[in-house]
Structures are given as C-alpha cells and as structure tokens.
Specification:
The structure is a single chain. By secondary structure, this protein is mainly alpha-helical. Among the domains are: 2-127, no CATH class; 259-308 and 311-415, no CATH class; 647-720, no CATH class; 1293-1407; 1414-1492 and 1499-1505; 1506-1663, no CATH class; 1706-1821, no CATH class. Strands 1-2 form a two-stranded antiparallel ribbon. The longest helix has 28 residues, at 1108-1135. The relative contact order is 0.05.
Length: 1821
C-alpha cells in the first residue's frame, strides 16, 4: 500500500516525497490529500521564495516560515529531496544573515531543526554545511560584551535552540573541518584559565564532526581523541567542563561503536561516573564540597557504546558499577542521589535497547554500523539483562519516580521477557496477599503495566507461558477495585485496560474442537477464556459499587461551586471512560450484550443524583454507545424517552418549575450522554426531537442545561468525522473460532498500512437531519434575539441565557458550517497577498440558513448586536456574556469547551509509552493506538485550519476587546483568553486593537478603572509574547508613550499591573532589528529552489524583485524614524515634569529597554540619563547607571589592533606542546624586562589574554597597537561627537562628580550591598575614552573615600580604583606613571582602613582590575603587593594583603611564575606562623601556587613551583613530629598482659617545647593547603599528599586541639573522596599500609574508617589490578585481627562494605576459611594465650557477621549456614556475643519488610537457630 501511494503521488507531483506523514493516508478522505498537499506546498514554496527575493524578512519570510512548519507537521517532509536540501541551505543562509534579530534567528533555527530531524534522509555526501557561520552566530549572540551588559536582548530559550541546531547541523560539517575547528579552539585549552578552557571544550563538543567513515578517522577524531582524554586525565578534578567533554566522548563512541578502543579508559571513566552520583560514602559524614555534574544520558550512551566485542572489561566494570548501586535503589535508601541513579537505570536500558534495535532491526541507511564482531550477541544481551535485574528489582517499590522504573522494566522486558516478566509477576502476586503495604501493590501493578505487552505476546518472544497469566491476573485485580483506596483503584483500572487491549475478551474454549496444533499454553488459555464473561460481570459489579459510593455528599465539599468538577471527579470520569471503552471495544458481541443488559438494568432501575454518581453512570452508558450504538440506542433511547414523557405528563407544571424533579433530571442526563450514536440516531430522531421540543425551554436551569447538552451531542455526533471502532485486531470478534483463533493474535501489533479503519462520515441523510434541527431550533432563537435587540420584545435574564445556550449547543455541528466568504483585510504591508491555510477535514456538505445565508456569519452578526444590547441595558448579565464569548470561540477557532486537543495528545503519548516496543519500533503499536493516532491527526487538521482575516473577524475581535475591558473580572478573563488566541492565530491582528487600546489609555483611570485594568491585562498577554512588546516600531511608538502619560491611579490593582507591565517589557522585549539586510547568498539559493520541481512562477514578480533593495531601505528608514520618535516621545514625557513618579520610572525603564546595539542614543537622551544618575529616586539612579554604561559602550572609540609576527618571537611551529617553552618565555612576567621607559612601553609584545601561548599558538595573534597609535583624547577632542561632548562635559563638572560619588558611596540596604561591577565598568569606560584628562577630578574624591573607614566608602573606592586600573589600558607611559604615582599611596592608605566587610570587595577589585591584562604592564601594582605583606601592624591587614596578592597573581597565573616563586620563598618562613588567620591565608596561597603544577604527558614541565619540591622541604620536619609522637607512644604506659596502648588520647603533652608547637602549626598549614588543593584545583590528591596520611591519622585522635582535629578530619575526608590515577594508587596503598602497622591503635582505627571511603570512590581503578585488590584485602584481614577490639569492629564494617560492593573477587573462599577457623576449639591456657584466642575468635565472628551485614535486603543461598556457625559462639567471651546480637538485630531490622519471602530461604532448623540468636535467654533459664 505504501509503495502504491508513493508512486501515485510521484505521478501527480513529478517527484518522490522525502518522508510523508503516513497518517494522512488513513483518513477517510485520503484520496483528496495528494492534490491538496501539492497545492499547499507550491503556494508556501512560491511565497517563501518571493519573500526572500523581495528582501522581506518580516512579515514575508517569518509568516511563510510558520506556514512551512505547519505544513511539515501535517504532511511531514512531503517534498522532493532537491527541495529538502534547497530549503535547508536557504534557511542556513537566512539564519546567518548579519545582524539578524533574535526572534528571526529563533524562528529560522527551529525550522532548520525540523528539516534536519530525519537525518537518514540526507547523507553528508548530499549536503555539506560550513561550521564557521554558525560559530560566528554563537559569538555574536552569546559571547559579545553587549549581550552580557543587556544591550543585545533575547529570550533565554534562544541559546538552547541554537545549540540544538548545531547538534543537527554538525552531521553535515565536512570531516576536513575537524582540523579547522581544532585550530580555532586548541589555543584556549589552558587549564589555568577556567573560563577559556570551559568555553573551548563546550564549542568543541558542539562543533566537532563525529560521524565519519573508518578510513576518515585520521583526519577526524584521531586528531583529538587521545589528546582530549589526556587533558581530562591531567585535569581530572576539573568539574566545570567535564560534562561537555563527556558528551563529546559519548557522541564519538555512539557514532563509531566498535571502531575506537576504550579499554584503557574504562576504569577511570567509571570512577568519574561514580563520583557524579554523589552517593553518601564519606569519611565521618564529611562532604568534600566539590560537586561533579555529568549528564546521566551522556554516561549511559558511553557505557552502552563500549559494551560488546571480544573483551569483557566493559561488562565487568558495568556489573561492578551496578552492584555498587544496587542497595541504593532500595526504597529505604533515598537522598539527593536517588533521582540520578533512577535516571541511570532508565537511560542505560533505553540506550542498550536502541543499540540492539540499530544493529538488528533498523532499516539500513548511510549511517555507520558497528563492525560485525563488535555487535551485541544474544549472550551479551542476557548478560546485560541479568546485570540490571537486581537493581530494577530493588527499585520497583520506590515511592518516587515509578514512571522511570516502569520504563526501565519495559526496555528490559523487550529484550528478555522470560527473565523480567516472571520477576514482576512474582512481586505482583506476593503484594496482592499483603494487607499492610498498599504501596507495594500499586507499584507492582504499575510495573506489570510496563511489561504487559511482552507478557501477553510472550509466545513470539521466547516466553510462551506469558499469556497464561492474563486471565488469572484479571480476576486477581478485581479486589483492587476498592473505593476506599482510590490510587489502587485507578492503577487496577489501567492494568485491566491494558490487558483488554492486548488480549481481547473472546471465549475460545471450543478451540480444541477445531485445531489439532494447539500448544500446551494455548490449551490453558483457551479453556480459561470461558471465564471472560464472568470476569466482565464481576468487573461491572465492582464498578457499580464504586459509582454508588461517589454520591454528591461524599465527594463534593465545595457545595457553592456545583458547576465545577473537583480534581477527583475529573480523574474518576477519565479512569471510568478509559476502562469501559477499552474492555467494551475488546470484547465479543455476546459478552457485550450481557454487560449491556446488566448496565441498562442498573441505570434505569434506580435514581441517582445527577452531579457525581449520576454523571458517572451516564458516562458509563455513553461508552456502550460508542462501541455499539445500534444495540445501545435500541435498548436505552425508547425506554428513556418514554420515561421522560411519562414524568412530564404526570406533572403539568414540570416545564415551569425552577427545581427539576430528581428522576426527570437523572433520565435527561442519561439521554443527553447516550446519544453519541452518529448515523444510528436517525431512526430515533423523531422521539429525540419530541423530547427537545418539550424540554429545551424549561424554566429549570438544570433541565435546560441537560436538554441543551442533548441537542449539542446530537449535532456533534451527526457531524463529527471519527473512527467507529478501536479493536486491537482487524477482524471482527464475532468471527467463528474455526476461522480465526484470536488467542494466537494476542499482543500482535497493528499493520499501519492495513489498518482497515471504519470511519463515520456524515452523509446526505445526516446533513438533512442536521439542517432540520438547525432550522427548527436556531432560527427561532435568532429571531427572538433580534427582537430583543430591536426592543420589540423584552426577554428576561434567564430566558436570554437560555437562548444563547441553545445557539451555543447548535454550533456543535460546526464541522458542516463553512466560514463566511468576505474579502481579506491587509493587516500589514507585504508583497505577498493574504492567504488561507485551507484543509479538508472530512465532509464536503455544507448547511445554510433557510434563506441561503451563511450560518456562521448570521450568528456572528446576531451575537454582535446582542452584545451591544446587553452592554447597553444590563452589563451585569455576565452569564450571557460568557456564552457570547464561547460562541465567538467556536465561530473563529472551531473550539468547544471541554474538547482539548493538547490533553488528548498527552494522554495518547502516555498510553503509547506504556505499550510501545522500543526494540522493534517501526510504529509497531497496537491497532487501537494507531487508530487513536489517526484520530489525533484528524483533530490536529481540524485545529490547524485557518482563514484570511476579514471584516467579520475584525468585528468579533473588537467585540472581544470590549468584553476584555468589562467591569466584571470573569468576563474580562474569558474574553482576554480568546483575544490572545486570536492574536496567535491571525498574525498582526493586534494592529486592529491599536486604536481601541490608544483610546482606553487616554481615559480617566479613576472613572474607567475596570477598562484601564482590562486594557493593561490585554497588553500583558499572551504571556511570553505580550502585545506590548510586539516587533512593530510603529505600534510601540503609539502605545508606550500613552502608557507613560496615562493618568495616575493609586488603586493597588492598577499600581501592580503597571509594575507587572514594566516587568513584562523588561523580560519579553527582545532586540528588534532596525536595519535589515538580505544577503546575495539568500537570493541565489531562492532562485535555485524556484527552479526545482514544482517550479515557482516568478514571471510577474520581476518589478518587485528589482525594487526589493530600494524598498528595504525605505522600510529601514521608516523603522529608524519610528524608533527615534518613540524615544523622543518618552523623553519629552519625562522632561515635561508632569509625570507621576511611577510613570516617570516606567518611562525611564522603557528607554532603557529601547537600547539598540546598532543605533546610538541621541545627545538629548545622553544628557538626560547622565543627570538622571543624580536623581533623588534610587530606582531612577539604578536604571540611569545601566543606560549610561550602554551610552559609554556605544560611544567607545575603536582602538587599533595589529597582528603579531610569530616568527619575530621565535615561534616556528604550532605543535601541541602544553606548558612553558622557549617560544613563550617572552610572555612571562620578568622583573628585569618590565617596561620602564616610553620606548619599552610602545613595543608590540604585550598580550592580555591569559590562554595565548600556553597550550599551543593560534594561527594569528592580534594585539592592540602602541598607545601612540591609538585614538587618544588629544587627537579626538576637536572631533568629539555630540554624545561624547555631553559625556565629557558631565564628568568634567566637579559638582556632578561629587554628587555622583556621594550617591555611589551611600548605603542602600544594610548588610546587603555588594561590589557593583556596573559602576566599575562606567569608571573603566570613562577613563578609556578620556584617559587622564579626568584623573585629577577623581583623585581628590578617591582620597576622601580611602580615608573613610565606612563600608560603603571603601566599596566605592574599590570600584573606582578597579575602574581606573582597567581603564588605563591604552594610556601613554607618562600618564600611566602619573597614575601609579597617585594610586599606590592611596591603596596603601586603604590597606590601613580595611574592615571585615570590605576585604572581599577589595579582593574582587584587584581581581577584576588585572583580569585579562598583561602583568608586565601592571608591574607597579604587582611589585607593591609583593612588598613584604606580613610586615603590617596587625595580622588582619597582613591577611588582607596576602588575599589581595593571591587574587592579583591568580589572574595570569602561569605567566606570573617569577612572582609566584618569590611569594613561595617568602611564605616558607611563615608556614608555622603563630596566628591561625595568617596560616589560613598562606594555605590558600599555597593552593593557588601549586594549582599551576600541571604537567601534560607530552608537555613541558611548568616553571611554577613543584609540589614535590615543596614536600621535600616540609616533610623532614613533619617526619620529625611523627617520630616524636611514635617515640612517646613507645615509652607510654602499656598493658603488660596484651601489649597494646590503653589510652586513646595522644601523649603530645610530653613534647612540651616550642618546637613541637611549631611543627603542629606547620602540619596545620600544609594540611589545609592539601585540603584546598584537592577541592579547588584541577588535580586531586597526588602521591606527595599521601605522605601526610600517617600523621593525619595519628593526630586525628587528639582531643585537646579542636582545630587540629577538624583539619585532620577534613584532610582525610577530601583525600578519601578524591580520584586516584593509576600511577598514584601504589603511593596511597603504601601510606595506608604504613598506618595499619602504626603502634597507636587510634591511628589504626582512623585508617580503618578511611579505607572504605577511598576504595569506594576509586573502586573501578583499584579492581582493574588484582595485586591492588589483594593488598587491600590483606590489610583488611590484618586489621580484623588487631589487638584492639575497636579496630576489629571497624575492620568488620570495612570487610562488610567490601563484600557488599563485591570488591573481593572470591568471597565464598574467604567465607569457607572463616567457617573452618570458627570450628577450632578455644584454648584457655594462660592469660596471654586466652587473650589471643578471644581476639582470633572475635575476628572470625566479625568476618562471619560481615557476610550477614553485606546483604541488608536479600538472603543469598549461602547465608543461612552462616547463622549456624555463629550459634556456636553465642556463649563465648565478650565482646563476641554482643557482636553477634548486634548483627542479628540489624539483620532482622533490614529484612523485616520482606521477611515472609526471606524466611523461605531457611530450613526449620535454621529458623530455630536464628530465633535463638535473636531472642535473649530467659532470666529463669
């Protein structure tokens, strides 16, 4: 069928479509759609091409781009490959137009994403895109200073849109571009510049091509893969950029699976994954403070891509990884790690299934597949599923994220249902028996839903017994339908629905009479299928009980809001509807009739209240109508009609009573819901018409509503095109069993190309019936309304509502009511005429008024008149106005309240996800899901229709505006919602509202409070694209000044709205283009597309194309004129002096938002904002501060740059050799060559960017020319622009500066003020523009500021000094010397006045001042800071100076090597400083100093201080301290009997000399440095750091020095948590071993706590070598037999952890050894021997207990025997019995929840032993 349709379309259109939306072919009018799509695409293509050729980006390109997106959503990529490629190239060219505004970028980028989404359609050989234009676009949007300052404004989503687009486009970047990209970004890979390297890694991840042929690897990923992995290993502690690098590795592994050998990287990668999860393993619960964030998706992609092949390394590490995580999936273990590990579980399974699908089932395309030998085998799949199974078993009962777990189960069940489904069913059946754990049952049911498809279709999936569970499971679920547990009820409903859709309820019990080939499982299923009818009967009995419990008094608490449903009611209705339709559509006709009769008896033999339970019953009955309208209507309609007639006849006043009889209301409710029977209604239309005649005008509001609903349902049912059945199988369920054995079709997916959908499409008879009803009920109502409008008939309020309700109900037939035909209105000037997106949606029939008029037009005119009349006579009739709004909603948008396409779309996808098969894909969904998807497409087509904007639309929109400013809030809200929909539907329709908005804004806000409020609300909507921020300079010019000039109102609602409107403008007003251009490349590509088939006719377009450039210039000038007028009007309003302060603030804010990167503010605006900085209002001053900064940036002189000759500096090659090399020595700070003369100052050797030269050289180095060649003030003073003159004159005026400084140094908010970077930037730009001409003005004020000790004065001084230093970048040598001559003494004074509050400000000031500045040009400041910082009067000032020095040297760290060496030498004498604060600052400096000790595998050694050298300097003294402590221990009192130290406190008091204190202080300083280094720098612990471990473990036990104890704890915590490289592991193990042999038992205890932390966080690395594992186990067992019981107990916990995380390779051998030793008899000869024997026994018992503790949530087969061995030691000496009881207590506690399951692992004797162990002996025993 697919091939036939494609060939047919090829014949019609002349080309083969790329990718059609297949659902169009399944619609009942599919034969008309090829012609329609060809017409639509040709129109869109033609007008898009014309828009480009006419250089009309707006509205032309923007409008037709939106229509192209809509076309693709409806028809898919239904155009030729030539057009596909042409459109991609055209939009790529449009996207990269210079200075394109953000909204257009977003629109074009989104369109490109849509076009590039199906990458298999176009190969890289067919399409090639250049990467550089996209990079330039990224730079322009995200990297420019104008963006950072807020001068270039865009929505936050634009960055993500652009990045996503690059991810689509990079597939088509040529592989040869790899080298270009590396050349661009490699120079930025300087580890010492975090921002630069992070930026470079992000761009490399975004742009590097990774899809290539294996033979292209040498010009592709081989150029960078090993290099970047080495960089990651060198900087293994760099958390800022490793996520981007991980994504790059995930991409390269995913697209080149099997072609890259990851073997050597696997262990360290798993270490990184482990620390990302932030599991709660830490030394004494101390967290390190450093967060590592890698996206779980990237981790999962990489892991899955590395699996397979001949090596088992990847599977080995994955298994260990999941074993580590297993216990954290248990519901008892929740924390911040829980969402991450849950996502890990889902994503691993998802990407594994995707890989299997790609390798086995995916249709071949140009994309590279893994080599045959690396593809996943069946064994690999089994291995993977078994690895995942224990974790998913634990996660099943998690209280959060059940959806993720269910999806993970679904993916695994798709792979191996025979492994996963039995496990889920076992859990489900077990939880059904539990009365105390309802959560387990609901979780199990949800899990069963996820695997239900693979259970039912088990025969096809190597799980033949799967379908046998269906019927028992259905019966088992019936008790779950419990009104008292609504959650359980809903999930039970869902599972029953799923099972019904998978396994239709048809009795096949006689199958054995016709089939000889039935399998054993089929025999069981067929015999059990006889119970389907019984199940359905019991099911509906349960439903009846639930419905009866849902009466109004039990469910409804909000009695005053009876018309609105509660959330529970809505959920109940949805659940009931979903269940009933599912089981009824999927049951045989005989079962259907049985249930139908049962429901009929239940519904008609009782009277239920009509609000809740009655509504549920009515909905239940309506489901039967949907499934079998013929039988349902036959049973219900005559009965209900007769009952209603009898009730009406019995009570003659029933029609006039205000309160409807309960029985009549209930029967009307049933009838109104049950008439959804499409053409089957025709035979009952007379009866129904009779009921309508009698009830439609009832005085009872409730009765009228029900009757109107009946009419509405009739109209909708007869006119709505929809499927008539949703069976899971194509064949009817009444087919004889001998012809069709349905059980063999259970779970079978539908064939998308042979669905055989049965559609209802209204025919002649139905249209005639609709026409009759419309003429009968609509015409009288319209006549009645016309008489009301004319005044000839008075209508009561309720009667008017009744008439409008009837009109609204009749519009249910809107599908057959064509739109009015009127000339289109031109809302905006365009070269393209108005156009309508007209779509076929079903029927060609049209219903008209009796006189032939258009029904919609007639109703629109009548309702327009009625609205005017109501507003004139009774505006308080809000219900009538609400109906008018609803009627307009249908007339304009074809939307009924309650029919939500978006909700249908969400529920469809939710159901599809639960039952989809990700393994086979190819739309292999169940048939009913495919039918529902086709119906969704029909609804989407209906909603997507649009028409041209006509005079009637204008009338309706203005009417809605009138209601949108009504005095009643509910009317305003409803009308405003429809206005926003209209504005979104009809582009530029907001222009229609402009005159009305202008009129309202000029009204008196007090007298017209509600109108003004409504108008403000309208301007603020729609939410993300407010009308007030439309991209229309003429509209903005008209509206914004009027807002500002509107009359002030002090009502809180208006005040808040005005504030919110200002915020909306600030948030949602992006930069709008003023000067637009279209490149020649765009024109060229448009011509190429025009020539593709179907060709675009441009014959009549030549003149417009010729005049395109001229018209573009005219439009640009018009935009510029409107922009300037807007600002001038706002400025005039401010200068008039009559504005209220809030309006003045709004006007100033608007002028700030109007900043434009391409257009300067006028001199008048410049003058205004300069003086606004001195305004009394702080809000005005803050805005003015930002705007003045914009002005300074706009008027900044363009400084001259030159390219440096690399050869001049001896740079002969650009090879990657990171570090200090002979060719970059000239960049370093050198006190001997710093510029000390004008000649040296003028040299071209000063490079400000830190990254240049460290990693590799860029192709070209651009530096600023010498100061003499720059546009100095002396050269420019006679040529200053008017704006520059205003700036200069203002800042020259000392009174202005004095006032400005006074405001800057005022406190704004006590304790909340911070360093203000914007003020710094103002000072910087002032001194950049005018250099030292203004210096004298500011120096005097600066003197006052530094003298003042007040916090705000000091902060202002810091900002001013930082701005001065930044601004003197291009000053001459003499001016610079003069500056430093003035500045250094002031900074010295400031040092004396530092306070705790301002030290941070001064640190930031120095850091910002020297950021991106060549240190050689700032040697005055650096040398001043280096000058003996600790010689100050107080330690506080000394600390402050160290802090400033550290910040200064950190800015160009690797280039400040000389200064760093000097600083280190200086601090070496102060490492043991007596003051704690000084030591802390020194330790921070050491962290910064040694953070530069980064050595690359092939790089040069850094010339910065080396960690190894430093430790050689300090360790002899620290070893001395260690030896002294051990010596004291050896002479300390020992226990003569056992030879171990009794005391835990350290005998440091005996070292009572000054030297000891000095050594302790030295240790503190070094330890704090190491702690900071591990946490803050690119590298974690290095081998030298582990030399501190023994001393830290020894000193940890000191209780007399809290600081020392804390420092040791922190050191051990961060060292334990740090990543260890392979080459560092021996050093770590050596240090651990040394401590384990330490004579001080407290040190041994500390290291026993330390070992599990270190092992856990580095387990993948350590288990990669057997000798390391053996060494750790030996140390553990040695500690287990330690003399000290405390150490043994800790060692037992350590052993338990190692066993729990499967660290020990052969645990059963170790267990056997423990068992053997436990049987040895205790010998008691001699006290010493007795002690040794107890120690050994205790160690054995601890070892056995460790095996029990290592299984907190399960009971492996070997565990029960362990209890037998423990029982033998229960009467041993202490502490053995207490150890056993503690272990058993923990075991009972952790196994309590599932003890009924766990105890099955024990024999009766073992249970008896366990009881003896856990129950203490009787006192009287």
């Amino acid at each position: 069928m697919k091939e036939e349709n494609t060939m047919k379309y090829t014949d019609i259109s002349g080309f083969l479509p790329q990718k059609e939306n297949v659902y169009n072919k399944l619609l009942p009018y599919a034969d008309k759609l090829d012609e329609e799509s060809a017409r639509l695409f040709l129109d869109i293509k033609t007008n898009l091409v014309k828009s480009v050729l006419a250089k009309e980006t707006r509205p032309g390109c923007a409008l037709w781009t939106s229509r192209l997106i809509k076309y693709m959503k409806i028809y898919g990529l239904k155009f030729s490959k030539e057009d596909h490629i042409g459109l991609i190239q055209l939009y790529y060219a449009l996207l990269t137009i210079p200075n394109l505004e953000p909204t257009r970028i977003n629109k074009f980028a989104s369109t490109l994403q849509f076009l590039l989404k199906k990458r298999h359609l176009i190969s890289p050989e067919e399409l090639e895109l250049e990467w550089k234009p996209l990079y330039d676009l990224c730079i322009r949007i995200m990297e420019t200073s104008k963006t950072d300052l807020g001068m270039y404004r865009y929505f936050l989503t634009l960055e993500n849109t652009l990045k996503n687009l690059i991810r689509f486009c990079r597939i088509y970047f040529p592989v040869e571009a790899t080298q270009e990209i590396l050349d661009e970004f490699r120079p930025l890979l300087c580890p010492h510049s975090t921002a630069d390297i992070a930026c470079a890694i992000e761009y490399l991840e975004l742009f590097l091509p990774v899809i290539m042929k294996p033979e292209q690897a040498n010009i592709g990923y081989n150029l960078w893969l090993e290099e970047l992995m080495n960089l990651w290993e060198v900087c293994h502690n760099a958390s800022v950029w490793e996520n981007h690098l991980m994504w790059l590795m995930a991409r390269i592994s995913n697209f080149n699976t099997g072609y890259i050998n990851w073997e050597k990287y696997i262990p360290i990668m798993y270490v990184r994954f482990l620390r990302t999860l932030q599991l709660p393993i830490a030394y004494r619960q101390k967290q390190t403070g450093k967060q590592f964030k890698i996206d779980i998706s990237a981790i999962a992609i990489w892991i899955v891509a590395t699996l397979g092949g001949s090596s088992d390394t990847a599977f080995f590490h994955l298994e260990k990884f999941m074993q580590i995580l297993e216990s954290y999936y248990h519901p008892a273990n929740t924390g911040k790690w829980t969402p991450k590990i849950r996502e890990m579980l889902k994503k691993l399974n998802y990407y594994f299934v995707e890989r299997v699908h790609t390798e086995r089932y995916k249709k071949p395309s140009w994309q590279l597949l893994a080599p045959e030998e690396f593809r996943l085998s069946d064994t690999d799949i089994d291995k993977f599923v078994n690895i995942m199974k224990p974790c998913i078993e634990q996660a099943m009962f998690s209280r959060q994220g059940s959806h993720d777990v269910t999806q993970a189960l679904q993916f695994l069940a798709a792979l191996r249902p025979n492994i996963i489904v039995p496990m889920v069913l076992e859990k489900l059946y077990a939880s059904m028996d539990s009365l105390t754990e309802p959560h387990k049952l609901t979780s199990s049911i949800v899990s069963a839903m996820g695997v239900s498809r693979f259970m039912v279709s088990g025969t096809k999936n190597n799980y033949p017994e799967g379908p046998t569970h269906v019927i028992p499971l259905l019966f088992a679920l019936l008790p779950g339908i419990d009104p008292n547990d609504i959650n359980k009820l809903f999930v039970a409903f869902d599972l029953i629905s799923h099972l019904a859709n998978l396994a239709p309820f048809v009795d096949c019990s006689e199958a054995s009479n016709y089939y000889d080939d039935l399998t054993e499982e089929e025999h069981i299923i067929c015999e059990a299928s006889a119970g389907f009818e019984d199940f359905m009967v019991q099911l509906f009995d349960k439903i009846f009980i639930w419905v009866e419990s849902n009466s109004l008094e039990f469910v409804r608490m909000e009695q005053h809001e009876l018309d609105q449903k509660s959330k529970l009611e809505s959920l109940s209705e949805f659940a009931l509807l979903n269940l009933t339709t599912s089981v009824l559509f999927q049951c045989s006709p005989s079962i259907f009739m049985t249930v139908l009769r049962k429901v009929h008896n239940f519904a008609t033999n009782r009277i239920m209240e009509s609000k809740v339970s009655g509504k549920l019953i009515a909905m239940l009955c309506s489901c039967f109508t949907k499934v079998n309208p013929k039988e349902t209507l036959k049973l219900f309609v005559p009965d209900l009609c007769d009952t209603i007639k009898i009730l009406l006849n019995e009570n003659e006043n029933a029609l006039n009573e205000e309160h409807l009889n309960d029985e009549l209301a209930y029967n009307l409710l049933l009838l109104s819901e049950i008439v959804d029977g499409n053409s089957h209604l025709l035979q009952y239309i007379d009866r129904l018409n009779d009921i309508l005649e009698k009830t439609l005008h009832m005085k009872s509001v409730h009765g009228n509503k029900l009757s109107a609903h009946l009419l509405n349902m009739l109209m909708m049912s007869l006119t709505t095109v929809q499927p008539t059945e949703y069976r899971s199988l194509t064949k009817s369920y009444d087919t004889p069993i001998k012809d069709f054995l349905i059980v063999r079709e259970w779970g079978k997916p539908g064939d998308l190309y042979n669905l055989n959908i049965s559609w209802y499409v209204p025919g002649e008879k139905e249209i005639k019936c609709i026409e009759m009803l419309l003429h009968k009920y609509l015409v009288p109502e319209l006549e009645k309304l016309n008489r009301f409008v004319e005044g000839s008939q008075n209508i009561e309020k309720n009667d008017l509502i009744q008439s409008l309700r009837i009109v609204y109900s009749i519009l249910g037939c809107q599908n057959v009511l064509p739109l009015w035909e009127e000339p289109a209105l031109n809302l905006i000037e365009s070269v393209i005429p108005p156009w309508a997106f007209e779509l076929t949606v079903g029927t060609d029939h049209a219903v008209k008024m009796p006189d032939g008029r258009n029904v919609r037009k007639t109703i629109a005119d009548a309702i327009h008149a009625v609205q005017k009349k109501i507003l004139e006579v009774d505006e308080g009739n809000t219900k009538s106005l609400q109906f008018i709004i609803r009627i307009y909603n249908i007339l304009v948008f074809n939307k009924f309240t309650g029919r939500d396409f978006e909700m249908h779309w969400k529920t469809f996808h939710s159901a599809k996800k639960f039952l989809e098969d990700r393994l086979h894909q190819k739309k292999a969904h169940l048939r009913y899901i495919l039918i529902d998807r086709v119906k969704l497409h029909q609804e989407f087509r209906t909603e997507s229709r649009s028409c041209t904007f006509t005079e009637t639309h204008k009338q309706i929109l203005l009417d809605l505006f009138e209601l949108g400013i009504s005095r009643y809030s509910e009317v305003r809200k409803s009308a405003q919602t429809r206005i926003f929909s209209a504005i979104n539907t009809f582009p530029f329709s907001y222009t229609i509202l402009a005159p009305s908005i202008k009129y309202v804004l000029q009204l008196d806000t007090i007298e017209n409070h509600e109108k003004f409020k409504g108008c403000l609300h309208i301007l603020m909507g729609p939410k993300t694209t407010p009308i007030a921020t439309r991209h229309d300079w003429a509209f903005i010019r008209d509206i914004w000044p009027l807002l500002v000039k509107s009359k002030p109102c002090e009502k809180p609602s208006i005040v808040n709205l005005m504030t919110n409107l200002s915020d909306s403008v600030k948030r949602y007003f992006p930069t709008i283009a003023i000067k637009i251009e279209v490149t020649d490349k765009c024109l060229e590509l448009a011509h190429i597309i025009a020539k593709n088939v179907p060709q675009v006719d441009l014959a009549d377009f030549d003149e417009i194309m010729t005049n395109g450039r001229e018209q573009l210039e005219v439009n640009n000038k018009e935009r510029m004129k409107n922009y300037n007028e807007t600002i001038q009007l706002l400025l005039d309003a401010c200068l008039d002096g009559n504005l209220h302060w809030r309006h003045y603030l709004m006007a100033v804010g608007f002028m700030r938002e109007l900043v434009h990167p391409d257009v300067k503010y006028s001199p008048e605006v410049v003058n205004f904002f300069l003086h606004a900085m001195l305004h009394d209002l702080i809000g005005i001053r803050k805005i003015a501060l930002r705007v003045v900064l914009f002005i300074l940036v706009q008027n900044k002189p363009k400084f001259v740059k030159k390219s440096l000759s690399l050869k001049h500096f001896g740079i002969t090659n650009r090879n990657v050799v990171p570090g200090i090399r002979p060719d970059n020595q000239w960049l370093l700070y050198n006190s001997k060559t710093v510029p000390n003369s004008p000649e040296e100052w003028e040299q071209l050797r000063y490079v400000h960017k830190q990254y240049i030269g460290f990693y590799t050289w860029p192709k070209e180095i651009e530096v600023y020319s010498s100061p003499s060649e720059q546009p100095t003030p002396a050269k420019r003073m006679d040529m200053l622009s008017p704006q520059e003159k205003e700036i200069y004159n203002f800042f020259c005026d000392s009174s202005n500066v004095k006032m400005l400084i006074r405001y800057f140094s005022m406190e704004e908010k006590k304790g909340k003020d911070q360093f203000n970077v914007f003020r710094l930037l103002i000072f910087k730009n002032i001194f950049k523009m005018f250099e030292d001409k203004l210096l004298d003005v500011y120096i005097s004020h600066l003197q006052e500021l530094v003298d003042d000790k007040q916090e705000q004065s000091q902060r202002c001084a810091a900002e001013l000094i930082s701005g001065l230093i930044k601004g003197c970048k291009h000053w001459s040598y003499d001016s610079t010397v003069k500056l430093w001559t003035e500045l250094i003494p002031l900074i010295r004074i400031a040092f004396c006045n530092f306070s705790v509050e301002t030290i941070g400000d001064w640190g930031l000031s120095i850091a910002v001042a020297l950021e991106s500045r060549d240190p050689n040009r700032y040697h005055w400041l650096l040398e001043f800071l280096m000058d003996n910082p600790l010689a100050e009067q107080t330690s506080f000032i000394g600390c402050a100076r160290i802090y400033l020095l550290q910040n200064a040297l950190h800015q160009q760290s690797w280039r400040n090597a000389e200064l760093i060496h000097r600083m280190l030498e200086y601090f070496k004498g102060y490492l043991a400083h007596p003051f704690q604060n000084v030591r802390e600052k020194i330790s921070y400096c050491l962290t910064s100093v040694f953070g530069k000790d980064v050595v690359f595998p092939e790089g040069n050694v850094t010339n910065c201080p080396r960690v190894g050298d430093f430790f050689e300097h300090v360790m002899p003294r620290l070893h001395e301290l260690y030896r002294c402590i051990l010596k004291e221990v050896s002479t300390h009192e020992k226990d003569r009997s056992n030879g171990f130290v009794n005391n835990t406190s350290l005998p440091l008091e005996s070292l009572n000399d000054e030297h000891r204190e000095e050594l302790i202080r030295l240790f503190k300083t070094v330890s704090k440095y190491v702690t900071g280094s591990i946490v803050k720098t690119n590298c974690s612990a290095v081998p030298e750091h582990y030399q501190l471990l023994p001393l830290a473990c020894v000193l940890q036990g000191n209780d007399k020095d809290d600081e020392l104890k804390s420092i040791c704890s922190n050191l051990l915590a961060v060292m334990g948590h740090s990543l260890i490289l392979n080459e560092y592991v021996p050093a770590a193990l050596k240090a651990i071993k040394e401590v384990s042999n330490c004579p001080l038992w407290s040190a041994r205890a500390v290291v026993t706590e330390f070992i599990p932390v270190l092992i856990f966080h580095n387990m993948p690395t350590i288990i990669s070598k057997k000798e390391w594992v053996t060494e750790v186990v030996d140390i553990t067992l040695k500690l287990l037999e330690d003399n000290q019981p405390e150490v043994r107990i800790l060692a037992g916990k350590l052993l338990s952890g190692l066993l729990h995380y499967h660290f020990i390779p052969e645990p059963l051998e170790l267990l056997a050894d423990f068992k053997r030793k436990s049987k040895a008899s205790m010998k008691s000869q001699g006290t010493k021997r007795k002690f040794a024997d107890v120690r050994t026994r205790h160690a054995i018992v601890l070892g056995l207990c460790a095996f029990i503790d290592s299984h907190p949530y399960d009971v492996p087969d070997y565990l029960p025997d362990v209890f037998q061995h423990l029982g033998l030691h229960l009467n041993d000496s202490e502490p053995i019995p207490s150890t056993i009881r503690r272990t058993l207590g923990d075991f009972k506690r952790t196994h309590h929840d599932n003890w009924e399951v766990h105890k099955l692992k024990f024999t009766e004797d073992e249970l008896l032993v366990l009881s003896d162990l856990t129950v203490p002996p009787s006192y009287y025993a």
